[in-house]
Amino acid sequence: MYELTPHQTNALNTNKSISLTANAGSGKTFVLASRLLKVILETNTSIHEIAAITFTEKAAGELNSRIADELTKLSRQSYSPDIQKKIEKVRKQLVSANISTIHSFCINLLKEFPVEASLDANFIPVDQRTSDDLIELSTEKTIRSKLSNAHASTEVKILIRLLGSKKALAREIELLVRNRKNLSHFRKIYTEKSLKEIAEISSNNFIKGLKKILSIELPEMLKHLTKINEAVLLNNSKNETAVNIRKLTEKAEEIGYKEIVLRYLATISDETLTKSGTIKSRGYLTSNLRVDLINSINFVERNFKELNALFSVEKREDIEEELACYSRSMLNITVEVINEYENKKTQLGYLDFEDILLKTKEILSRKDVRKAINKKYKYLFVDEYQDTNEIQYEIFLPIVNYLKTGNLFIVGDEKQSIYRFRDAELEVFGKTKTDIKNANNENLVLTLPDSFRMAPAICLFTNHIFSKLFNYPISIYNEVEHSDIVCARNDSFMGKVEFLIAQADHNLAEAELIAQRILKLSNEFINELPDWSSIAVLVQKRSAFSELEKLFIKYNIPFSVIGGTGFYQQQSISDIYNYFAFIFNNSDDAALIGTLRSPFFTVPDVKIFQLSTFTGDSYWEKLSKAGISDDYWKPILLVLIENLKLAKRIGIPSLLQKILNESDFISTIAARNNGEQEINNINKLISITIKFFNLEFNSIYDYLNFMKNSIINFVEEAQAGIEDNNNGVNVMTIHQAKGLQFPSVFLYKCDDTIQSGDVKARSFKIDKTFGLLTKIPKNENYFGEYYSAPIVELYNYFENKKSIAELKRLLYVGITRAKNFLFISMKENSNPARPLNSFSSLIYEGLNIDHGGKNFSIKGDLNFLEKANSTYKTVSRNLEIEIPIIRQAEQPSLLPISYKQVKHGLKISTDKISDKSKEDIISATKFSIFTNCPRKYNLTYNFNLNSMIQDYVGWLKLSKIRNDYEFNLYEQRKISSEETFTKTLTNPDLKGRIIHKILQKNIAANEVELEVNRFFKNKNATNSKLKNIDDQIKKEIISSIRKFILSNEYKHINSFKNYKNELEVYYKLSDYYLMGIIDKAIFTQDKIIVVDYKTDNIIDSEISERAEKYIPQLNFYSFILKRLYPRFQIIETKIIFIKYPDMPFVKNFTKNIEIETEKRLGEMINSIRNNIYSVNLEHCSECIFTIKNNDCVLDSEHKYVASGIQSKNDGKKN
């Protein structure tokens, strides 16, 4: 393991429960993994007696991987045989370790104790969408039932009037059902108490809450008011307003925290503030007095604005009773809906996420279950503890026997608690810290202050701004305490912080400024930003994504929107909808024109206009006539006629596959800057379409209705996910960036304000302290003004304070994602004195500066963690950083040709080492097959006969060639699943694929067996083909990989520092696209080495002959690289046969070969487009479509296998 810092070492005390607060980038996952391993290796604890809870499935996987990595490092060190044996045992058991999310953990507990939980052991956990559907059905049924009952309808009708409509009532009920755990706190009060008693409870809660607020705010308020007022009196002792204010403040101080003090504060507010909420200049605080009072002025103005609503509350008992009446009615109908929802779930055997936690809490209240769990789990680890809530706390503590016998380790950072909207309760962290202190009788509430992430400039900036924003935290407002970050970076890079301030009168000015700065930055710091994915643009709201997309496309910056919404509103989805809308109704002119203009046909507007001049009542009639006389329209017409006929005979999913395959749609959208996102969206639509037609007997009519409804209503549907290894600028929300880090971070739209969480008219809120809340119409006038009971205004006050506190933490998370560069962008004319409801107002509050200048500096002491002579020490240095304010970036010029500038044409993928073709993109394998034999290409790709021929002639038994060659004929990504795809492969195919997969990981020879076994363990559950692999094949795989790793050639190719595994390359040549995935590309000073692994089963004397057959594939790769990286003079290709690793076949890619390759590519495209496929008879002896006597299936007695193909598709030379 890496050497631990002193703070990290303290956290490894396994004898006691520990709370660990970890600063951003402090290595908390490393500490968590190290402590878990220490428990296993140094105590008599089995891995199955430990549970580790993470916030997400991804975090669970990362923790598992980190532990596996640490075990691998430990296995390489010299330990006693007993320890080595234990390490190996743990490595094998790791796949079954209890490392999971809270929901997965609770599901396992419930399945272990189904009787105690009163559950069917075969219960089904359901996702949010299924849960929402059932809640909606339950709500609709309950409302309909009550409205049909004259006696029961009164309550519902009152609520419909209050909320405005039946739809609004259903919406509010559904929200309350989802939040039923908080509703349960008040069911007894609202059902057993009278309205007067409920009103009295609310009134008492208001008085208690108000006293808390006044005890915090009143002293500070009076202090700043007095400071301002005394300055006025010092200037003019007879100022009437100031004399009166002095009396009022003295009286308010005398009254203290009683409710009546609000009247005095309200009078002070009226005397000192203008209608807009600023302190009066005329007759009170003149401009010459303001300079030294700016902080006090800002404080008074903000606090009066926050307290203003409390000044005006009407303290009348009937208001509270009215609220109680509406709330009781709402609770009654919501309870009925909950009961209906529970019945539906019981009938179906479902549990939703909320049930899983509630049921687990319920069974842990049983002594027998708790005793069994305490015996089973000795140690409990919980990551991201700041994001837990009370119900999770009530699950964790019983598991460790309330800290009496069990050992609890919690790690998190209150400063990064940003999930209050998901019911995270920050106070739970503090509560658990207190429990741990009391249980240990010593302070084992520890911190990790050292950050290995951020450069010194960013550390200093962060400490400077948050030492003020987090100063004097008030716990009831969810505010957190500041802790300085200690810089633990050991490099010399200082880091950079900049402000980008755009013109306020231009909607896209800020996005354009960011795009321009990204291009300039990318050229300035090539080493620090090796690829586009080193850059992240973080936003608060997804609505900001579209602006960035427009400007990134304009400046040709590749990007990936992570978690973007509006899936059904994407243009590519609309294009597909139009195509099927036309197929359903060919008189739909809008659908046809949309289809023609889309990438399916790419018809320009001038041609659409030309089409309009033909006669016909509809555009389909016009096209039918145009296709007869005009060569341009004829092929389009034929395609559409064919698909109209097919729509009546084949399923919609199959037709969707066909129209995508036959057109340039996929290749066109793949070439866009956000091509990976577009492709993933199409794949998601394909999956949705398949599922739609599998679930019911749906028709194209149903499909179009579903699509139309989704396009109109489902604007929040997430776009498809993107693999982590994308090579575009990352665009995401700060919430999505939590736990991530990037060399460069842009915080975009820092002027965006947070939405108020106030109780609004025609809606309900449930709070576990204040109850069920809503606004009430005056005098039952449902068309007039609604007003708030005192308890509602109190809730609003606390909600506003908590929202601002979370906004500060969100800003902290955003800033601390940056490693080297931090850019903060906003629009000009931001008002720093406005309420603290935006990043910009918080930043200026924290920096205490005016943003009107060109730049400013920050100076202060920063602690560094340094290591000298194996000893860590913390040293303090005084630093000063200059922070420029950029209002206009340099206009970016065309990028010079180099790796850095052409990187937008690349995609780095770790998915598979084998080639893949995305629909109409020409891949290396396609090129290689076509070079071998055009007819073979035709049979393989156009007619997909490979698997059929194998089945028909018993290929696996008859063909030695197939067993000898590594050749993946199915490199295209099909609609079918990976399992379906894998079923078509032979054992040699699988062997080659698995070897390639394992070689991705750069593992040591002694790790091969474990990795192979882990691969089969992970894949077996979903891949039936892998289940049938026998032990002999596994042994062969292990032996082959181990032999290769121990070879001199392997050591040689891994000695280079600058390389890319699985380099996925794209290049547009003429009007088509080339694509391939290179096993390994090594970049030296003036040369690129292309390495290709092969798993062919050959003897050493056949190496040269066999390698020559792969040369077209290597030439294809080299051709793309030469076009992408022209500055490299030499491209060397190297084929390494795994069986003979130290006998590589090496060949240079010359200029003549480049010219010949381009010529062959042109011939290939021409042949495909003209549907002419000649035959290469010399290849027949090695072809999978050869039956016997080297006869092709089309020329033999077995011709009927591919009946009709020859005459339709083969050239005369066949």
DSSP strand count = 29
What do the pLDDT scores average to?
Answer: 84
Unreliable residue stretches: 894-919, 950-986, 1020-1025, 1196-1214
Report, as a whole number of angstroms, the end-to-end distance: 65 Å
Largest β-sheet summary: 8 strands, mixed
The CATH topology of the largest domain comes to Lambda Exonuclease, Chain A
Oligomer: single chain
Question: Roughly how much helix do the residues carry, as a percent range?
Answer: 40-55%
Our count of domains comes out at 5
Q: What is the name of the CATH architecture of the largest domain? A: Alpha-Beta Complex
Strand line-up in the sheet with most strands: 13-14-12-15-20-11-22-21
Instruction: Report the total helices.
Output: 49
Describe the protein in words:
It is a single chain. With 1214 residues, the protein is of the alpha/beta class. It has 5 domains: 6-123 and 351-447, P-loop containing nucleotide triphosphate hydrolases (Rossmann fold), CATH 3.40.50; 201-311; 486-562 and 727-756 and 803-886, Rossmann fold (3-Layer(aba) Sandwich), CATH 3.40.50; 571-615 and 626-713, PCRA, domain 4 (Orthogonal Bundle); 909-1202, Alpha-Beta Complex (Lambda Exonuclease, Chain A). It contains 49 helices and 29 strands. It has an 8-stranded mixed β-sheet with strand order 13-14-12-15-20-11-22-21. Strands 23, 24, 25, 26, 27, 28 and 29 form a 7-stranded mixed β-sheet that branches. The longest helix has 41 residues, at 195-235. It is globular and about 110 Å long. The two termini are 65 Å apart. Mean pLDDT is 84; it is low at 894-919, 950-986, 1020-1025 and 1196-1214.
